[in-house]
Amino acid sequence: MLEAFMEFFRQLADDYPRWNFIFFHEPRQWARIVKGLQYTLWLSIACVLLSVIIGVVGAWMQNSPSKWVRGIVQGYIQFFRNTPPFVQLLFFYFALGQFTPAVTGPDGWTEIPIISNVGWAIISLSMFAGAFNVEIFRSGIEAVPESTQEAADALGFTRLQTYKDVVLPLAFRVSLPALNNNLVNLVKTTTQAIGIAVPELLYQCVSIWNDYPSALYPTMLLLFVSFIILVGVLVYGMHRWEHKMRIPGYGG
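^ thats the sequence. predicted structure below, dont judge the formating
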């Protein structure tokens, strides 16, 4: 069955040279696609989780009594919202990367940075999306009635307890539609990691069509379909989550 499948695409490449689905009939190229998908999924999951954590913590810090804390959060938001994510990625990797410690490699003489290109991609893209998530959660917090927070204060809740147990659960429901859009954009933005040679799906596809120009159209098609499926799964999951968390009067 598998051999017949591979033979079909070999014959297709012979008959129509511009449609060479080489990754379907050459195991080495298929392995590159699988590796790219793994890195794309890893980047997407790690960046989504970290950016949401940054958003939650940053929104809490925005309401800090200290003007210094609020100023730091506002500066972070302005820096990451007003500069292109690709420029941020290059800055983190090439500029800040020069100041990170390195460890000696197995051969005893090469130095390996403690933060790899994948690590810098996760940090940079998460902080970029996190800046938007802070504002998303802030708007959700402002939608929670002041009387609700006053009631928590009257019951003896600390500021952290009020945020964690009362405000955040309600604000999260209000924020989900906007958060959904931002996370979808984040997943698509992971393709920019190609700029620092992270071997994600776009990187692998470019490598394949550079090696085999006849595979250009099929590889572009595979890349397009892969992201449609990946983003579609994320959107479906977020919509299901939003529907289950919906409370009348909060978030529609």
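The domain at 39-245 is CATH 1.10.3720.10 (MetI-like fold).
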